[in-house]
Structure formats: C-alpha cells, structure tokens
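User: I'm preparing a small set of examples for a lab meeting where we compare how different chains pack in three dimensions. I only have the primary sequence for this one, and I'd like the structure in token form so I can line it up with the others. Please keep the answer compact; I'll paste it straight into my notes.
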Amino acid sequence: MKSTGPLLLALLFSSLAAFGQGRANQPPPPTDQVTPEIRGIVAAGTKIEVVKYGLRGSDGVVGMPDGSVILTTSGGVGKIDADGNLSMLVNDSDRAQGLAVDPKGRIIAAQYSRKVSILYPKESAKVLFDSYEGKPFIRPNDLVADSKGGVYFTDCYEIARHGETAINGPDRKPDDLPQAVYYITPAGKLIRVADDIKRPNGITLSPDERTLYVNDWMGEYLVSYEVQPDGTLKNRRNFAKFDLAQQTDQGMVGAGDGLCVDSKSNTYSTTPAGVQVFSAKGEHLGNIKVPIYDNYGIQVSQNCGFGGPGKQYLYVVGLGVVLRIHMLVPGNKKRPK
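Assistant: Understood. Below is the structure token output for the 337-residue chain.
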C-alpha cells in the first residue's frame, strides 16, 4: 500500500474546488471512457458522459424531480437540465458547497462562510444557523434533508493547504467546536448528534431514513448510525471499509468525500480511487474510475448524486466537470438526495 504524506494529500485533495476554477481553456476530459461491470449496479462498457467541463467549480450535485440536477458552481447554484443546458438559480451563494432540497422544494446549502442557509427560492432565503451554543461553526461541508423537514449537516476543517498543521485545520483554536454532525429538527431546533468522526464529510440517508451514512475523510471507513424518531443517532459503526485507503502521518486515510445512495440502499462514495460502491450490507462491490482531469493526476470525483430521467443516472462532479453514467439501479425517487 502506497504511503502518502499530509503535504501531498493536501496538494491532491484539499483544494479540489480551487482546481476547478478557470478551466475554460482546458480541453475536455476523455469522452471515450467507460465503466467496468459492477454486477447489478452498472453494465460493463457503459459510457461516462461528459455533460459539462471548464466550469468554475462543481460540487454539491442533487437530482430534481424534472430530471435536472442542481449543483454549486461559479460562485452560485446552477441547474443543468436533462439536455445538459446550464442556467443559474443563485448567482452569489456565499461559498456554498453541499446542497440539499427539503420537502418544500427549498434549496438549502452548507456554506464555507460558516453557516447553513436557505438559498432558493429568493423569497425564502435566510440564514438558518451560523453557530452552536454561542460558538461559530468551523466550516459546514455537506448536508441532507429528510422527509420530515429536518436537515443533517457535517461541520469540519478544511484539508491541508500548508502541510500537516492544516490537516487539523489551518486556524484551529483550542475553544473551537468539535468536528461534528448536526441536525436541524423540523421544529427549527439545532442539536449536535455526533462528534466521534475524525473528519465528517459527505452525508446521506438510506431510502427508509433509518440509517445515516457519513464519510470520514481522515479514516478508513464509511460510518453509519441508526436514526431515532427524534432525529438523534445511536449505534455508530464502521459500515464499509474504503478501498485503496492511504497511509499518512495521521494514520489511515480513505479520503471519502461526497456520498449518495440509490433506491436499493447501495452507497456511492467519491474518493481518490474513483466512485467506490458498497452494498446495503457494507460490502465493497467495485470502483468506477472516472476521467483524470488535472495536472496533478486527480480523478473527477468530488461529489455525486442521482438525477436525469427516472433518476437513472449517476452524476459525478469535481474540478469544474460534470459527468453522468447510466446505472442499472436508479436513485431514490422519494427524496432528492
């Protein structure tokens, strides 16, 4: 297993959003790349379609009922229709990264500006929370809304830009909040539901909403919890082990970033190894290696979500690129993410 130090990991993964900036003059990713077979998930030879490239960032992709997807890009929130046309819903999202859509159709964002807000529609826009128990958030990263109107989100430090110190946060202070998972209840109360993950990142719910999954960027495992009726969590477990985890000075790093789930509770985690697919039981089923699109040799694998007609396509975004892959199992049609 290859050993990779924190500084190199910093160069490779911490600034994916920045790497996606200003790529208008860069050629498109390979358009002839296809997937291997993952039995019951994707057929061998399925084309990895390049929907968009050269965008100013691409993250937070979520499927919509009309077959379009929304994502964070160009400093705002964009919408890509089933034909690949991009329009902007929000021009200035104040550093939004992860997105969710609640049962009312409102777009909610985790923002690097240390808050969670409703961004769209415009008349509903407002900050939901920017602190917990009087302390500001670290940097809300990703989120998912449940069918009750509640929202789970992760709050974590940025991965290194300047070596090992930044792995633990470039400006970490002793009285900072812990890296954690929070829940905004349907009644509008904020509660911290987990603080036992090294660096919580991508987050999603099982189709029946009984299980919450969270990617641990700094660990070997995709973590799961049992969701309680009040939205709290119990029975944390290491649900699935990442393939090709990397040894660093901090220990094993799987670098799990974005996360989504299909209608049969298979989970999809974007990592340096591509999109890693796990069964409903946590078995590693295979990896979808998406195109290399960077001088650093990084795969376009920052976040993922299901969209398109019938939610039959897996969208993979990162580095200013939007890809889609026709899957055998559709996404969850009962909830946007």
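A couple of notes for your slides: The longest helix spans residues 6-14. The radius of gyration is 18 Å.

User: Perfect, thanks.
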